[in-house]
Amino acid sequence: KFSIFILLIIFRFLSLTVLLTLGDDFGYDGITGPNYWGERYRECAGKHQSPININILHVKHIILPDIEFIGFDDSIDDVHVTNNGHTVLIEVKNEPHPRVRGGPLDGDYIFSQMHFHWGDNDTFGSEDTINHRSFPMELHMVFFKEEYGTPTNAVKHHDGLTVLAFFYELDRHQHPAYDDITSALANVTEPYTSVAMSHPFSFLNILPYDLKRYFTYKGSLTTPPCSEVVIWLDFEQPIRLTHDQIETFREIKSAHGKITHNFRPIQPIGDRIVFYNIDNSYFSYNTIDEDEEEHKDTHPKRKKHRNNAQNILSNYTLILCNVLLLVYGIHLSPLISEVSFTTDF
Ligand SMILES: *[C@@H]1O[C@H](CO)[C@@H](O)[C@H](O)[C@H]1NC(C)=O
Ligand SMILES: *[C@@H]1O[C@H](CO)[C@@H](O)[C@H](O)[C@H]1NC(C)=O
Ligand SMILES: [Zn+2]
């Protein structure tokens, strides 16, 4: 029995040594911490690094085409949760993988993996910050450009990866879609362990409702080798979890004990511009108007004005009706919201 124990210790020691010599040697504190990454990985000292602080006053408003989220509502049955010693990874084993296109992206990007960054307590933990506000946790969904074949090859190209980043914020109510993840976490607290998720998994279920408003900028991986190949999309609406749900992530261990934090501090923004994609439904509304005009009217301008005036009038009429009906205790608001948001969906 004793010799088996010794053998296990030797095996463990050897596997750790192998991992370390493979370059898996960065951490978040002391001499392996972010301040020293640049010594071993030159790109970590680059000028277009991530994460950054996004200053809302300095973003450039733009209207990009809608992002297409393909396969995000599929129910995926072969999903693995892995503790890689730095974070928790979620990987999809069956094909086809979900993909994204549109927005600022040129071409299709295929899902590679998703993982999380968190902090010691709920006051910080996200990597990017917004107006220097930190969030307790951040989700990174990593996609590689289909044209480049594999994630490893994609990292050699300046537009090789896109990361969809989502912030978390605290809620008093549990997010049910996260129960499967947190129960899987309990089985991978030890480093370099992995477990298959017990139920099918859908991307859309774990994301916020609003996928239209986001910031986008060009940056890097936030872990060594810090390759400057990432088109970042930071979605504005956070995902809401309870304190206890976030706390389960802090139980995850590396070879050196609990991973209490694994976020890189913000990096200089340099000469980069952060773009802010605002909701484009207002503009598609006008486009629909113009299409109709081409067929029906020889005086598009006049008709458009009349249309807008009519719309405003009918909206006011509805609001007036709603107020009146409210007085009588009848609620018409579902109708109002349906009318004003028809172009959203
Ligand atoms: C969170 O952690 C930081 C750093 O360890 C500490 O300064 C701060 O007081 C903590 N906040 C709370 C609310 O525990
Ligand atoms: C993890 O362990 C718990 C028991 O501790 C078990 O109920 C669960 O099914 C396991 N697996 C996953 C993927 O959650
Ligand atoms: Zn990350």
TrEMBL record:
The keyword Zinc applies. GO terms for cellular component: cytoplasm. SMART domains: Carb_anhydrase. Its EC number is 4.2.1.1. The chain crosses the membrane at residues 312-330. GO terms for molecular function: carbonate dehydratase activity; zinc ion binding. It is an enzyme of class 4 (lyase). Residues 1-23 form the signal peptide. Belongs to the alpha-carbonic anhydrase family. This is carbonic anhydrase. It comes from Bombyx mandarina. The gene is LOC114247610.
